[in-house]
Amino acid sequence: MFSSKLPAVASRAFTSSSAVKAKVAVLGAAGGIGQPLSLLCKLSPYVTELSCYDVVGTPGVAADISHVPTASKTQGSLPDPEAGAWPTGSEGGLKAALTGASVVVIPAGVPRKPGMTRDDLFNTNASIVQTLVEGCAEHCPDAVLAIISNPVNSTVPIAAEVLKAKGVFDPKKVCGVTTLDVCRANTFMGEHMGVDPSSLSVPVIGGHAGITILPLLSQTGASMTDEEREALTVRIQFGGDEVVQAKAGAGSATLSMAYAGYVFTENVLKALAGEKDIVMPAYVKSSITSAEYFASPCRFGVNGVEEVLGYGELNEYEQGWFDKMLPELEGQIQKGKDFAQK
Ligand SMILES: NC(=O)C1=CN([C@@H]2O[C@H](COP(=O)(O)OP(=O)(O)OC[C@H]3O[C@@H](n4cnc5c(N)ncnc54)[C@H](O)[C@@H]3O)[C@@H](O)[C@H]2O)C=CC1
Ligand SMILES: O=C([O-])CC(=O)C(=O)O
């Protein structure tokens, strides 16, 4: 359904050089996702400047990452421009972190503990995303925003409303990152089919929480019993809970999410640099269903999301989940809009 296979990164270490200059800012860069994501961005030949921003720890994270021998420059800053920054003596603050960024990746905010839903994070993370996106509106209004902070189903509409209020909303440039759902779908289907998961690209549509995550397993052509289909579908929908429970109070997926965030970011950079046929899923403003924001394969280009693609045929089983999903997704979208508009 979508053509961007998820790439390996190991071969990237120690390579360098990219023709196009691209600054990537990671907001929340000292966190569980932010640190490995920043490291992977440092390895990417598509990143020429890496900006690590967080409320704590970023001078240290940036100093550490800056010793990795790739061609990009690394900068680390805290909210207070007068507080220490990396390199020592460089300008700190959100303005310095964002100015000139082509892509801003946002994994800032609190993660889940066992027993919580992603929506339980709303009260804390909604205002974090709102504040950071206000900064983006001011300092890098043309950047593509890749929002990781949960609940993605609501934080993306919040980001859009903030940008609209500032008069700089471009629907091509505001994305929720749902790549981890595809990573999980490929991994679990690879195990089921007995094939290398990196050869698969299972379409996953909808949103990024529980039953709003809908893998379209029928489009893989794999044979499975009704019980296998149900087990695989539910495992993909609740893959995040599997990690939250295994981490037993120490947070949620960080390493697999860092990989997924890197894949998303690098593909956006490739498209911004003019590479053709970059198609990958994203949770974006959409008119292909009644939900105002919806995750489906998108074609990326020099302006961001050039085209929101359809998702093909659903079988009866998938249609059942789809019908259950839409009201829940629409409610979470409205919750984000109401928060931002009040
Ligand atoms: N979209 C997805 O597929 C996934 C989303 N997530 C979400 O990503 C978020 C981050 O998760 P983790 O990295 O595990 O959490 P974490 O707690 O390890 O890191 C979050 C970081 O955000 C920073 N932060 C908090 N407020 C900030 C602000 N105003 N400005 C800048 N930085 C700020 C914290 O200081 C911390 O370093 C959570 O909301 C989590 O639910 C996690 C996994 C997958
Ligand atoms: O489950 C969580 O809270 C984190 C997340 O979004 C995921 O792993 O998909």
Automatic annotation (TrEMBL):
Keyword Protein biosynthesis belongs to the record: no
Positions annotated to bind substrate: 112, 118, 150, 184
Domain Lactate/malate dehydrogenase C-terminal: 178-339
Gene Ontology molecular function: any one: L-malate dehydrogenase (NAD+) activity
Root EC class: oxidoreductase
Positions of NAD(+) binding: 28-34, 54, 125, 148-150, 257
Gene Ontology terms: biological process: malate metabolic process; tricarboxylic acid cycle
Catalytic residues (UniProt): 208
Keywords: NAD, Oxidoreductase, Tricarboxylic acid cycle
NCBIfam families in UniProt: MDH_euk_gproteo (TIGR01772)
Similarity comment: Belongs to the LDH/MDH superfamily. MDH type 1 family.
Quaternary structure (record): Homodimer.
Name of the protein in its database record: Malate dehydrogenase
